[in-house]
TrEMBL record:
<keyword id="KW-0690">Ribosome biogenesis</keyword>
<dbReference type="InterPro" id="IPR040025">
    <property type="entry name" value="Znf622/Rei1/Reh1"/>
</dbReference>
<dbReference type="GO" id="GO:0030687">
    <property type="term" value="C:preribosome, large subunit precursor"/>
</dbReference>
<feature type="domain" description="C2H2-type">
    <location>
        <begin position="82"/>
        <end position="111"/>
    </location>
</feature>
<feature type="signal peptide">
    <location>
        <begin position="1"/>
        <end position="31"/>
    </location>
</feature>
<keyword id="KW-0863">Zinc-finger</keyword>
<dbReference type="Pfam" id="PF12171">
    <property type="entry name" value="zf-C2H2_jaz"/>
</dbReference>
<dbReference type="InterPro" id="IPR013087">
    <property type="entry name" value="Znf_C2H2_type"/>
</dbReference>
<dbReference type="GO" id="GO:0008270">
    <property type="term" value="F:zinc ion binding"/>
</dbReference>
<keyword id="KW-0479">Metal-binding</keyword>
<feature type="compositionally biased region" description="Basic and acidic residues">
    <location>
        <begin position="144"/>
        <end position="154"/>
    </location>
</feature>
<keyword id="KW-0732">Signal</keyword>
<dbReference type="GO" id="GO:0042273">
    <property type="term" value="P:ribosomal large subunit biogenesis"/>
</dbReference>
<feature type="region of interest" description="Disordered">
    <location>
        <begin position="107"/>
        <end position="154"/>
    </location>
</feature>
<dbReference type="InterPro" id="IPR003604">
    <property type="entry name" value="Matrin/U1-like-C_Znf_C2H2"/>
</dbReference>
<keyword id="KW-0862">Zinc</keyword>
<comment type="similarity">
    <text>Belongs to the REI1 family.</text>
</comment>
């Protein structure tokens, strides 16, 4: 929690609660704690780490609204993510998933998973063969998530 001391108009010492990442001032500690849970705050933390200036809340909301489709639904291209079920990781781009599937950690986890779940591995291989070919050299097919949280093979 960041506290700033200053002399107020009555010439008494007052404390102000602030968020350095968002350049905000809060009247109560509860308001400050609630702010720290907002996505806007998380975006500004990432901007601060990257050396960028804070994004004003109005600009953040405008950008967020641009990403949302009509009726407040998010564009499906943004919601859909590629997943590695073995490592339980999500990727926004196919190239990132491909890179992950070639990593040493993934290959080690895949081998360990295959030993622990041989019957499940056979089912997944059969499913992958019956569908369109997935990522070349991948032993775990990528999965796309729908907006309602259900999974379907991709």
């Amino acid at each position: 929690i960041i506290l700033r001391h200053f002399w107020n108009q009555e010439h008494t010492l007052a404390m102000v609660l602030t968020c350095v990442a968002c350049a905000c001032v809060f009247e109560t500690s509860d308001a400050q704690r609630a702010h720290y849970k907002l996505e806007w705050h998380r975006v500004n933390l990432k901007r601060k780490v990257a050396g960028l200036s804070p994004l004003p809340e109005a600009d953040y909301e405008r950008r967020r609204a641009a990403l949302l489709g009509e009726g407040g639904e998010q564009d499906p291209k943004i919601i859909d993510t590629l997943n590695c079920n073995v490592c339980r990781k999500n990727f926004s781009q196919q190239s990132l998933l491909d890179q992950h599937l070639r990593s040493k950690k993934h290959i080690q986890r895949q081998k360990a998973w295959e030993k622990a779940h041989p019957e499940q591995q056979k089912l997944e291989e059969e499913d992958a063969e019956s569908e369109a070919p997935g990522v070349e050299g991948a032993t775990c097919p990528p999965v796309r998530q729908e907006r309602d949280g259900k999974e379907e093979q991709g």
